[in-house]
Amino acid sequence: MPGPGNYLQNYGNAFKNGGGKMVSSLIGASLPRTDALAKVTGKAKYTGDFMVRDMLVGKILRSPYAHAKVTSIDVTKAKALPGVEAVLTYQDIPQNRYATAGHPYSLDPKHRDVADKTILTARARFVGDEIAAVVAVDEATAVKALKLIAVEYEMMKPLLSPEAALEEGAPIIHDEHGSNILNSVGYHIGDIDKVLQTADHVFDDEFETSIVQHCAMENHVSYAYVDDAGRIVIVTSTQIPHICRRIVGQALGIPWGKVRVIKPYVGGGFGSKQDVCLEPLNAVMTLAVGGRPVKLDLSREESMIGTRTRHAIRIKIKTGVSKTGKLLGIKIDAVSNTGAYASHGHSILMAAGAKFKYLYVFEAIKYSPRTVYTNLPIAGAMRGYGSPQLVFALESHLDNIARKLKIDPIELRWKNFNKEGYADPITGNKILSCGIKECVQRGKELIDWDKKKARFAKEKEQAMNWRRGLGMACFSYGTGTFPAGLEVAGARIVLNQDGSVQLQIGAPEIGQGSDTVFTQMVAETIGIPTSMVHLISTQDTDISPYDPGCFASRQTYVTGMAIQKASLEIKEKILEFAQKMIDVPATDLDIKDAHIVYKYTERVIMPLTEVALQCFYDPLASAPITSDVSHNARFNAISFGATFVEVEVDIKTGQVEIIEIINVHDSGKIINRQLAQGQVHGGVSMAIGYALSEQMLFEEKTGRPLNNNFLDYKLPTILDTPDISVDFVETVEPTGPYGNKSLGEPPVISPAPAIRNAILDATGVAFNQIPIRPQIAFEKFKAAGLI
Amino acid sequence: MLKEISFTINGKKETMTINAGETLLEVLRERLHLTGAKKGCEVGECGACAVLVDGTAINSCIYLAVWADGREIVSIEGIAKGGLPSKLQEAFIAEGAIQCGYCTPGFVISATSMVESGKCYSKEDVKQGLAGHLCRCTGYQNIIRAVMKTLEQ
Predict the structure, then answer these.
(1) Distances (CA, A) of A134 to A47, A236, A287, A298
(2) Distance (Å, rounded) from C-alpha B17 to C-alpha B61?
(3) At a CB cut-off of 8 Å and minimum separation 6, what does A78 contact?
(4) Residue A36 is nearest to which of B36, B77, B98, comparing CB atoms?
(5) Quick check: helix, strand or coil at residue A11?
(6) A567, A570, A568, A548: which is closest to A633 by C-alpha?
(7) Which residues of B touch A33 (CB under 8 A)?
(8) In chain A, fewer beta carbons within 10 Å around the N or the C end?
């Protein structure tokens, strides 16, 4: 190591030269995505893009019946078909019951997910349930072989609604569970009966939401093989690589370390890939053919029924209100249709129930959820995790109340908003930053609420066929799953010889932009340009630090904490090494724009690369610098926001046109403005579909899907999507690593009730169900005497 | 039934024997390993598989490879020239028009055919022209912005 002299000389020179060029703050900057070039040129490789030599094709035989027992299954003919390598039924496969939900494991058996799934089944619980599987040399052969499997079924009564499943004497869908009620754990705060008895007004409503599907553009796809060390490798389009490894281990009854999961680029998930849908079966498929690679690639039609959907929930609300419009107590009964297997069903209504109470002040709350098994496709996690359903009911209900009390809907809410310092009486979790009032104020100004309200009121007297209306709705949401779930995240940073770093994280990018904001965080915290941060985008459970995955809008917050910690640690190590080189205390040093600087003046001492080179190659002191940390987050930051919308309703056709829609979010500090806006655009667009067009339809008696394709399922196209305006109220969340809190899911929560409320304002017709499709709207307008 | 076909792909001549039932998407992805065109629905509903055939954007998942005989095909891999992204691709990056990226190649292909047509397009025309492409991430906002920006240049 050279003596300090030379460096001190430079240090002095740097003073004279006026220092180096500094980077301004990267937090809040609209940097382009780190993967944008790879994606726009078609170079980005998704799971289906890897062409492995001699890859076999796996196909699933799905039940044509919603509820039936397999009485016999004959695979002889299928096995005999040339090109068929394996045919699998439940008889060939370990029947370990496992849970598919992408939650971290719990050491407490009482807190574990519901293990009700087996790889292939002899009991069909929905149309599409997995009865048998084939592995063949190509797709055509595999499809042919599926047709040669002879299955006899004993029909059972299909239970296609929670009502049917709850009827006395209804067959039990999961015998070992003993009841069709998957979960009914609720809570109460205060004395709701007393509050409702003494309130000046009590309002009752009932709402219902429909089953919708995520429709990520990339279908569920994976491929698996056994490597030369005898371990199962699964390359898969997943939001939860580390959890996936554990669940495959559990399903197969093998040590978890025998499984390696790799996640390349993912073409969207929205929660459908926060679940283990393909991987256990794919693992069994490769084992059945001696470890040869097998691809399991679902068609769109299969993905729409064979993966996950959003829960349809029926919600009854009763609210006590004072004369002055103060909300006093609320009683919510919710019945959720979770379909054939638990997936996330047992936790979704609990999560939604935990998150809404931060929005308004209530003396008393009684929340009674029931989640019910039915013979429909499996409902699981989907962007917002129960909140879009519950908030649709709550915010529609509030507009009904405002109308009956003849108060402006904003005024009613304004009187009741919660604020900083509120602590959830059950968990103790607190609101530490709260911009809901600012969000509403901003939205009100942007849409010109008061003026338009007055104008539309006049127009309404003319009973025109095209009617304009204004609506709004608010929401509160959490960041991550704490305290229900463990929120741990890992980050590893490795310094290179040129002063650049590799960042490894276990938190997957699936399109939301986490890789880019992580890069910004590292660059900002260490003091280097983003071009010197090389993020390893692919997660590989053999290499990537542990992180449960991409869900609950947790990554910028929880993984952000780990990244900040790792960045600070590596920076400290670099400065300590620099101290050895220049004999200036590390505490007096800083890194700016990839240079070691004197902290108090920011005068440049030497380029970072000199320290990096020295730490690699110093003959005596060589010790390449890395940091490898985990962070366990013990807080849940509450985010807020509101949607404002203007609609024009065509009374004669029931068509609703969105003239203007604005989402204003308090997600704390925004890390990347352009990407944040993109999250809001996508969430609002998804919510417009939820409000007006999207609905999975099933044949009433048999439960057969009627529209599991993009022609018949009405996903908003570019022509259906209006201009979407976005604004942010940037509070500073003290627990957020960079003042930030959740944003990924929140945009999808409040648009549907805002649209519904705008239709109410325009027409006086109070819809209590979504989607408000033209036909449904037309019928209601007719019934209301508008036509 | 086997059939020999010849076509130009991204400026390169290819001759191969294929099954008559193979789609152009299968030939591009599985035989030529050009995986930029994506499979999203396999029935022409989502547009993720779009490529240019003699300058016109088509859904390659419902376009038989035998029809490509003698034609000039451009896939997403052929849009960037000399390793440099096209103006449109640059605009997609700058305007934040990309999220998961799965639909992106299809949008770029269709929008490229608009940009290269030399015609004038209003915002409404752009939306009409891209109506065959589905995107679940972006709400289409920044895609429209990127295409309009390129058309205005």
Answers:
(1) 20, 19, 13, 13
(2) 19
(3) A84, A87, A134, A145, A146, A148, A149
(4) B98
(5) helix
(6) A548
(7) 93, 96, 98
(8) N
Contact A310, A136 (CB under 8 A): no
Q: Is the peptide bond before A771 cis (omega within 30 degrees of 0)?
A: yes
pLDDT at residue A761 is higher than 50: yes
Residues 216-235 of A with CB under 8 A from B: 216-219
- Distance (Å) of CA B4 to CA A160, B11, B23, B68: 52, 19, 14, 11
**Cα A366 from Cα A353, distance rounded (Å):** 10
Q: What angle do CA A41, A47, A50 make, to 5 degrees?
A: 75
Residue B15 tokens, joined: 């001759």
In this prediction the ipTM stands at 0.99
3-state DSSP call for residue A104? coil
pTM, two decimals, is 0.96
User: Could you give the count of Cα atoms lying within 13 Å of A309 in the half-sphere of its Cβ?
Assistant: 31
Read off the pLDDT of residues A704-750 as tens digits, 9 standing for 90 and up: 999 999 999 999 999 999 999 999 999 999 999 999 999 999 999 99
pLDDT of residue A83: 98
Which residue in chain B is spatially nearest to A720 when comparing CA positions? B131
Q: What pLDDT, on the 0 to 100 scale, is given for residue A18?
A: 34
Using a CB-CB cut-off of 8 Å, the residues of chain B touching A681 are 138-142
Please name the residue that has the structure tokens 């999975």: A696
Q: Are residues A247 and A277 in contact, defined by beta-carbon separation less than 8 angstroms?
A: no
SS3 A743: coil
Interchain CB distance below 8 Å, B102 and A46 = yes
Cα torsion A350, A353, A354, A360 to 10°: value is: 180
Q: Is A684 on the interface with B (CB under 8 A)?
A: yes
CB contact under 8 A, B93 and A43: no
| Residue from the list A43, A216, A718 with its beta carbon closest to the beta carbon of B136 | A216
Q: What tokens appear for A477 in the block?
A: 């949401």
What does the DSSP assignment read for B5-58? EEEEETTEEEEEEEETT-BHHHIIIIIS----S--SSSSSSS-TTEEEETTEEE
